Each structure stands twice: as structure tokens, then as C-alpha cells.
Amino acid sequence: MSRTNPHVLLVYYTYTEQTRAVVDVMADVLTERGCEVRQAAIQFTDTRWAERFTRLPLRHAFLDILGMAPAQLRGATGEIVIPDDAKQGDYDLVCVGSPTWFFRPSVPIRSYLKSDTAGPVLNGKPFAGFVVCRRYWSLNLGSVKKLGSRQGGQYVGGAHFTFAGGQIRSLLSLISYFGNGENRERYLGVKIPPSLLRPDFGEWARAFAHQLADGLEVPAQVRAKARRHATPTPTQRPTNSSRSPDAHRVSADDHGEAARGVGRAGQPEESDR
Q1: Which pLDDT tens digit goes with each residue over 44-65?
Q2: What integer is the mean pLDDT of 120-138?
Q3: Is residue 234 in a domain?
Q4: Regarding beta strands 43-44 and 80-81, do their DSSP bridges make them parallel or antiparallel, or are they unpaired?
């Protein structure tokens, strides 16, 4: 990799491809802004738990989900496969994409952040995090910040992306999706929203990526080109976008500089993907 442009690592885990969807949007923006981007998807291989995540729908939705609760609540780590790009590299920024499982980072992400391998990648480097969650997000993002900082990283901000629906309906939607492998209009007779990221997640993923790019040194000619083709930046609210009281938001939680939707946040999440 040339050292002309900033190097960015987007390391993440995904089961239902929602975290990857955010990563793909961010990667496009960062590339447009003159960064050289590497995407690294952690693989979950621990024989105690990983087999259930090799299929969608789950074989036993309730049991497979609840079966992860003990590991999550005790902060367990497990066997993973780490892509080469997340094992080494002189990155100018590392961004961790973390799905929420029972309030906290998933076992694969926690395993990576606690590993000896992550230390050289994060030590002395700026890092950010984003959380994909059904409802609540703060414990997950806070854990990413804490674990990355313990590896010597310098935390620069975070964002969260939530799903549609309130507390009950979003939970029913999640169970339905895990049990059927597709979105349905009703579960147990109750009308439910799609168990996917909100349709406007791309706007906020782009805003967060622009915020991160603003903190990197990019050649002047690339900055000028990016300004000519600008999408909403972290200080701009995208237009023509209505917000319900529980809409997700993108935020630099320590600095308050990112674009924000109207949202409810800061409570423990109980389950996600």
C-alpha cells in the first residue's frame, strides 16, 4: 500500500449482513475522500457456538438465541479467524463494526478486540466504532471503546444504527426473522416492521464516514474533488427526512460533532444480530 493517502481498516463481524451493509457504504465514502480502505470480516469458528450461525433461518430460533446469553453475560471469548488485513498494517484509522448481542459486543468482535493480534493494529492508532442494534446500543459501543483503548488505541468517536419498531415489535420482528429467514408482515398475529436497518441508514453511514475522513490528512486535490461531489457531512442534517421519536442517529458520542437524527439512546440493548 502506498503511503500517499490515509489507510483505513474497517474490521467487523456480521451474521445477517446488516453490519456489512454499513461497512460497504462507509468504504465507498472513505475511498471517495482519498483513503485506501481495507475491509476485514471476522469469522466465528468456535465449536461451542458457531454452528448455529452457519444457516439462516436458525434451526431453533428461541433456543439458539437464548443459548448465547450465558456467554454474552459473562463476557466470553472464543475461536475466530482473523483476516490478514486485521492482523497487521500501519493504519491511520481503524473502525470496528460491532453487532449487539444481549447488550454487548458479539463474541467474535470481543474476541478480536481482546486478542494479542489486535494489539499491534490498534496500539497508538486512532480508532472508532459503530454499533448495529435492534434498539439500545450504549453498552456495546462503550465496550468497544474500552477494549480498543486497552489495546493502546485512541478513541475518536462512534455511531449507532438501529432497526424499525418499538421495544416489543422489534423483538418480535427479530425472532420472526431468525425463525423464517425472511421478513414477514405479522408474527403471532401482531403486525411487525421489517427486521432490517432503517431505509435511511445509508445517509447516516455516509455522514459518519465523512466525519472520520475529516480527521485524516488527505491530499488537497482529493479533498477538492470530494467537495464537488459532497454528500451530507457530519454537521449537516440530510433533507427531506422525517424522524420518529425512536429514529436512529449517528453521533460522535464523546464530541457531539456528527450529524444527528432525533433518537432515543443510552439504555442497555437486550438482543440483536
Answers
A1: 999 999 999 999 999 998 899 8
A2: 93
A3: no
A4: antiparallel
Is it the case that residue 22 has pLDDT exceeding 60? yes
Domain that holds residue 207: 7-165+195-228
The 10s digit of each residue's pLDDT in 196-249 is 888 899 999 999 999 999 999 765 455 455 555 554 444 333 333 333 333 233
Cis status of the peptide bond prior to 57, with omega within 30 of 0 = yes
Look up residue 128 and give its amino acid.
Answer: A
Flag whether 251 is in a domain.
Answer: no
pLDDT of residue 38: 98
**CATH of residue 67:** 3.40.50.360
3-state SS track over the chain: CCCCCCEEEEEECCCCCHHHHHHHHHHHHHHHCCCEEEEEECEECCCCCHHHHHCCCCCCHHHHHHCCHHHHHCCCCCCEECCHHHCCCCCCEEEEEEEEECCEECHHHHHHHHCCCHHHHHCCCEEEEEEEECCCCHHHHHHHHHHHHHCCCEEEEEEEEEECCCHHHHHHHHHHHHHHCCCCCEECCEECCCCCECCCHHHHHHHHHHHHHHCCCCCHHHHHHHHHCCCCCCCCCCCCCCCCCCCCCCCCCCCCCCCCCCCCCCCCCCCCC
Cα gap 151→176, rounded to integer Å: 38
- In the chain, how many domains are there? 1
Residue 129 within any structural domain of the chain: yes
In a domain, 146, yes or no: yes
